Amino acid sequence: xxxxxxxxxxxxxxxxxxxxxxxxxxxxxxDLEGVLAGLDHVASLGVDGVWLCPFYPSPLKDxxxxxxxxxxxxxxxxxxxxxxxxxxxxxxLGLKVLVDLVCGHTSDExxxxxxxxxxxxxxxxxxxxxxxxxxxxxxxxxxxxxxGGAAWTWEPRRxxxxxxxxxSSQPALNLHHEPALNGVLxxxxxxxxxxxxxxxxxxxxxxxxxxxxxxxxxxxxxxxxPLKPFALQRHLHDMMxxxxxxxxxxxxxxxxxxxxxxxxxxxSSQPGAGERIASYGAxxxxxxxxSLSLAKQPFSARALAAALTGTPxxxxxxxxxxxxxxxxxxxRWLPEGADPRRFAALLASLFCALPGTLCLYQxxxxxxxxxxxxxxxxxxxxxxxxWPEFKGRDGSRTPMPWRAAxxxxxxxxxxxxxxxxPEAHRALAIDAQERRAGSPLExxxxxxxxxxxxxxxxxxxISAVEDRGDVLSFERSTEGENLLVAFNLAxxxxxxxxxRGQALIPLTLPGMPEAEIAPDGRxxxxxxxxxxxxxxxx
Length: 538
Description:
About 25% of the residues lie in helices and about 15% in strands. It has helices at about 20, 30-45, 80-90, 110-115, 180-195, 245-255, 275-280, 300-310, 330, 340-350, 380-385, 425, 430-435, 440-455, 455-460; strands at about 10-15, 50, 95-100, 130, 150-155, 160-165, 200, 260-265, 290, 320, 355-360, 460-470, 470-480, 480-490, 495, 505, 515, 525, 530-535. A hairpin with a 2-residue loop joins strand 13 and strand 14 (about 480-490). The longest helix is centred in the middle third of the chain and has 17 residues, at about 180-195.
């Protein structure tokens, strides 16, 4: 992946989920006026840009990712003038702005789909993936939706099935069809002309499928079936088709017409994510990409080392420990009995030492734990369908706590927020952490500052990646600067053997217990959940 000339290489982004960031009009839902009011906090972290999740008109069946109009703002969140104010303020603060570009599907309320479902003839007839029933009336193949059930829904007006990889209200666009692809590219140009700095591209692996619509083979399993039937198939034909490369090349050619604009892709957790990051990010395609496959694995030195070495150039990866689709990392990975604040500091130091692009999810800088949402307050259709074995994504989407003593922790002045604010989040509110030395907020700011002040951490090469038990270590280097970093992922002391004669100057972070170099000069002693970042003397 060629990222050397892109500002995204080495950058740190902050992901804003507008519905839960800050309510600016007092209706209980976050909105663009709230984003505008909160940008000073984002800039204070020392990030380079923001990724703004969908704010487009939507029925909100999938809470923004079911889009009914790609070139407008949902009235609940504001209007285009409000977006322009957000963009201008962000740029004034030195922040780049990426917005979500959802290319693979729309809402079933989108005008394109309402026209396409009406008839097999007409301008939009082939803009979506349609297929005839089998002779017995069943769907054309065995493909499954990620959210459960068949990936096909019958449309009586056309006497055909349409494909949907997610909810049935999210029909899949036919990106093999040139007019449909051009429609997506025109959506991109609309926002580029408005001044955005690029796009986070949603669900890249689902852009194209086997044109012959062959069924997927079964995934062997023993014992009790998995919770989600999607895991019972090897997804050879419904996703990850090689023709995705051509779609990405068209997207890249479009953004290349706007100097500095970038493409950040989201990949699925299917096996081979490292190889797909490399292929999707070949010259002329994406600038960077991420997968949540790491977030869905146990927290271990081995898993992290494999992620670092599993792509030809680790600097091409975008790292995301938490986001709106997965349990918050500080809860998901916390070792049993460990101090959550110390663990949050470890995550901050590790995150900011990684090569490539970083994507920090709102509230991660506060070490917010995953929220427990009562079933009667759930919004996420994924969680509603699979409760209680899988409680959905709402627990990572609860409102940001701004002021500890305020109703709804300062998120809204409405009687009720769209999702409840957990009481446990109040003590972690921004105003409380601003007053507390060694708070997670202070640690994150310091870690991001360290990354910014040491080019080896932001844009340097990575080498000597090793996992020894619970310890992950590697080196980062640029011309004139070399660093050794080591992280103890366990809640007990650990040791690292140093090369003979290696002289190191420690870099310190608030909230992190200091590692020690033993008197023999060759043993680095890491405290429980401890980290060491050291400059190697020339």
